[in-house]
Amino acid sequence: MIALKSPRNLLCLLLFILGLNISNAQTNREELEKRRVELRNEITRINELRISNQKKQRSVLVQVEDLNQQIKSTEDLIKLTNQQANLLTREISTNTNKIGQLRKELEKLKEDYARMIEKSYKSKSQQSRVMFLLSSESFLQAYKRLQYMKQYTNYRKQQGDEIKANTQELQELNARLVRQKEEKEKLIAENRKTRAELEKNRKSQQTLMATIRQKEGQFASQIKKKQEEIDAIDRAIDKMIRESIAKANKESGSTSRSTYNLTPAAKALAADFTNNKGKLPWPVKSGVVTMRFGKQPHPVVKSVMVNNNGVRIDTDEGGKARAVFNGTVSEVQAVKGANQAVMVRHGDYITIYNNLEKVYVKRGDNVTTEQEIGEVATSRATGKTTLHFLIYKNDQKMDPAAWIYRM
């Protein structure tokens, strides 16, 4: 009797594993592609700002800061494109191996099927099948022979179906492989173009930096003066926070001036805010961080240290500030040197959106995640539209990059 064990189980396992790999790779590709588009848009936005600032004859410092941002974003884009190309290389290698395995399995199926067809042809007459049954020594043997004939017929049909299914799978894999190779070639070509742009920008950077080095002392004085202005703004914000905490606590009957007296609802909101650490949306729809949290060397004149209590985000002209989480507007104040600031309370957490030209909310308003709360101001001096975004827990400063998704 013919053994009915089929290589189909092994083949199904291979295809299942392949399917998992394809699914995971597809997810990775989609994430990388999304980030690549974001970087491309970011580079375009920075380049437009650079051209605008050059036309308006902005200071060399501003031009170098813009150029540094573009170079960094371009370097990030090259790295990310390389990751995409490497991922495709691995997928191409995996699919090539799977195609080889599938072809071997298909050949074996075809050989088995050919042998069955040949054997069936030799014993195809109805008479031989009847005689095969009539020559049985007992009814039980005849029954077993009849079952064998049915199994044989079903197995032959199963083999034919497997050949058809595997052929289709092989064709789909080949088509996918062609698409992957085309996509990889496109990424490689794009990377060549991006690298050329990078080298051009680096040469421009070197020319501008030579100018800055000649007058480094003068630029250092400008930066220190600007930092003094920033420090004054930060002190005003710290004062606003302390006064807001004291005011809220006085209304609830507490005398504390540094920490909020929380109701059960406020505690739940704060816990929810904490649970979303690292997942909060950006406070603008699109933008690039131009200065990060904490003490750091100036991005152009490295000999000068600067400090930032939050992050600065350059966005499009007319860009809107958005609440990063549900909360209540606790303060709306004018801040000298930084237009208007909106303070949103989330339990004992605070988010501050500073340098707003227009404000769409008032004290006591409830806001929801991604709700627009104001329009970011554009500086006449630099031509930049910059949001100063800060996060506090009570009166303690926190790094927004730890809270905002991919900041």
Automatic annotation (TrEMBL):
- S-adenosyl-L-methionine among keywords: no
Recorded GO terms, molecular function?
metalloendopeptidase activity
Q: Name one Pfam family in it.
A: Peptidase_M23
Q: Where is the M23ase beta-sheet core domain?
A: 308-400
Keywords linked to the UniProt accession: Coiled coil, Signal
Would I find Signal among this entry's keywords? yes
Signal sequence span per UniProt?
1-25
Q: Which residues form a coiled coil?
A: 22-119, 156-243
Q: Which PANTHER family match?
A: L-ALA--D-GLU ENDOPEPTIDASE, PEPTIDASE-RELATED
Q: What is this protein called?
A: Septal ring factor EnvC (AmiA/AmiB activator)
Q: According to the entry, what is the taxonomic lineage of the organism?
A: Bacteria, Pseudomonadati, Bacteroidota, Flavobacteriia, Flavobacteriales
